[in-house]
Structures are given as C-alpha cells and as structure tokens.
Amino acid sequence: xxxxxxxxxxxxxxxxxxxxxxxxxxxxxxxxxxxxxxxxxxxxxxxxxxxxxxxxxxxxxxxxxxxxxxxxxxxxxxxxxxxxxxxxxxxxxxxxxxxxxxxxxxxxxxxxxxxxxxxxxxxxxxxxxxxxxxxxxxxxxxxxxxxxxxxxxxxxxxxxxxxxxxxxxxxxxxxxxxxxxxxxxxxxxxxxxxxxxxxxxxxxxxxxxxxxxxxxxxxxxxxxxxxxxxxxxxxxxxxxxxxxxxxxxxxxxxxxxxxxxxxxxxxxxxxxxxxxxxxxxxxxxxxxxxxxxxxxxxxxxxxxxxxxxxxxxxxxxxxxxxxxxxxxxxxxxxxxxxxxxxxxxxxxxxxxxxxxxx
Length: 358
Ligand SMILES: NC(=O)c1ccc[n+]([C@@H]2O[C@H](COP(=O)([O-])OP(=O)(O)OC[C@H]3O[C@@H](n4cnc5c(N)ncnc54)[C@H](O)[C@@H]3O)[C@@H](O)[C@H]2O)c1
Fold this sequence. Notes:
Layout: E1 2-6, E2 12-17, H1 24-28, E3 34-39, H2 40-54, E4 58-62, H3 71-83, E5 91-96, H4 98-110, E6 116-121, H5 124-130, E7 135-140, E8 143-150, E9 155-159, H6 168-182, H7 188-202, H8 206-226, H9 242-254, H10 263-280, H11 286-298, H12 311-325, E10 329-334, E11 337-342, H13 346-355
Parallel strand pairs: 2-9, 3-4, 3-5, 5-6, 6-9
Antiparallel strand pairs: 1-2, 7-8, 10-11
Helix pairs in contact: 3-4, 5-6, 5-8, 6-7, 6-10, 7-8, 9-10, 9-12, 10-11, 10-13
C-alpha cells in the first residue's frame, strides 16, 4: 500500500494498493453512519469485494454514463439520504468511476450544506485524476459539468485490484491520462515505470499499477495543493493534450455513426498534437517529440486522428470553444516546462495537424 498526502488544510491521504478498499471500514469508523453511492454494474462486477467493504451500510444505486450526471440524480441521492436519516456529521462514500465520484461528490457538497465524502475510485481515470482534488459537477442540457462545487474528500481509497474487471476501453481511457502525467516535467518516475513494466501495466498487475497510480496521484495532489480552487493557473498544466482531445470527443459525439473516441485515446492524440505544435513553434527539440511518441505508442494508444474526422471539423469545434473562452488555448511544453499558450500561428497549427494525420 502506498499513501500520498494531499497537503491541504485539512490534509487527506490517497491510499493506493491492491486491497485499499479494506481500509473503508476504518475510515468510516469515526462516523455514526455511512451511505455508499455506486452503480449496479460495479456491484455486479466487483461482487463480494464490494459487499465486504460496504458491510451493512445503506447503498444508493445511480444510473450509468454522462446521462446520469444530472441535478435530478443529485436530488434522488439527497432524498435517499434524508430517508435514511443521514445527518451533517455522517459520511457519504462514492464507490465507482468519475461519474459516481462527480455526482455523489456534489450531493455530499450540498446535502445538509455539506457532509464528508470518501472517494473510492474503481476506474483508472478515477484513481489517477477524478477522485483527487475536490472538483464535483453534473451536466446540464446546455453543457458538461456546468453545475458543481469544490468539495475535497476526507480520504481517497484507490484499490488497484478493482481495475481487473474494468472494461478494456475504460482502462485505455485511464492510460491516456497516465501518459499525460508521464510527459509532465514531474513525470520522469512514471516514464521509468512504463519503460520497465509496460507488459505488466497492460496486464493490469495490481502491484505495478499501485506504483503507477501513486506516482500520478502524487503529481495531481501536489498541483491541487498549490491551487485548490483552480484560481492561480497551477492546475492548468493538467490540461496538457486536452484542447484537441476535447474537439475530438465533441466531434465523435456529433458525427452520426462516426468514431466514438474514448477520452484517454483523445488525450493521447492531443499530446502528440501539442508536442508537434510546440516543436513547430521552436519551443522543444525533436527529442521531446520522440519521447511523447514513445510513451503514447508504448501504451498502445493512438497517435493519429480517426480517418472520418477532418481538420476543418476539429478547427470548427475549437473555434466555437474559442468564442466561449476568448482564445484558442493550448498547454505546450517549452524551455520552462508546461505553459499556457494562446493563439499559436496557423502555420504551426498546420504542422501539428499534419503530425496527427488530420
Ligand atoms: N472531478 C474531476 O476532477 C474529474 C476529472 C476527470 C474526469 N471527470 C469526470 O469523470 C467522468 C468519467 O469517469 P470514468 O472514466 O471513470 O467513467 P465512468 O464513471 O462512467 O465509468 C466507466 C464505466 O465503468 C464501470 N466501472 C467502473 N468501475 C468498474 C470496475 N472496477 N469494474 C467494472 N466496471 C466498472 C462504470 O459503471 C461505467 O459503466 C466524466 O464525467 C468526467 O467529466 C472528473
């Protein structure tokens, strides 16, 4: 088991290991009552492992996917908490991926004006990203994650053995974020781990995943501690690879019968795009480009845009975002590490699009 402390006031630990779920009863023992929020698919997949961790706590089951991340679900959770008589001093446990973590996290932030929440992420994306940092949100018809709150967990229990049952596409989604951390200036240890143990990572060996998740969690935890409410820009580097990734995902959703691209795959392509953009702007050398290609391809992630998505489609989405945000913004590597770069020259964008075969 590895412990990563997030240095906020109060501090909290991210406990990472093949049996981290077993710590749930100890974490909850300081409370009068605990209620667990999860999804049926997770109960089915993890069976006795979940039953043992949950004990006799009341379980609230929510729906699956982005469609379940709504204010209606938050209301349903809160009403069940009220029926169960949960009070301010009790605790909510979010057991699942980012959908459960974001939705149950928001319910915990608002129920009785805020009750404690324990995040127990069961997806790779949840363990390296979503469960750490206190961002909670649900969707509106007008857009994703539009209603939310900052509500830090009291503990994060990342059980790497639970990842064994994760669908392959969801595991790949997490790997895209792992690649991002590896390619951040703080990510050298992750690159070394990947180089030594690629096969064991891809085979989901819980011990190697423990080191991998702990290293990623340490990077995220340190950035969160520097900028808990996303105000100073320190957390912006976590968006490395995400500008194109967002356009790829939006495009995948819009194109009828087109490529539905997983978040992590989109991030992987976005990383290749960003490093080639940085190279075209003479911010980094070819060695940095090679390193990104090596890490992304080494994890079996895509390095090119799906054939049915054109440069024009992607630019259109990015420009629409530009209108919303006021600038075409990328996080790019450079001599001083990762930086936010606004409105790169179109010649450099052309080179970057060509690098991902768009
Ligand atoms: N709060 C944040 O900082 C933050 C960061 C990144 C992403 N997110 C959010 O996270 C969400 C995506 O999360 P996700 O990728 O974890 O997807 P998800 O929560 O939808 O989980 C993916 C699927 O895997 C199933 N599942 C989960 N764990 C399993 C297991 N161990 N075995 C078998 N099946 C399992 C789930 O039931 C679900 O069907 C998005 O809504 C995104 O906005 C939030």
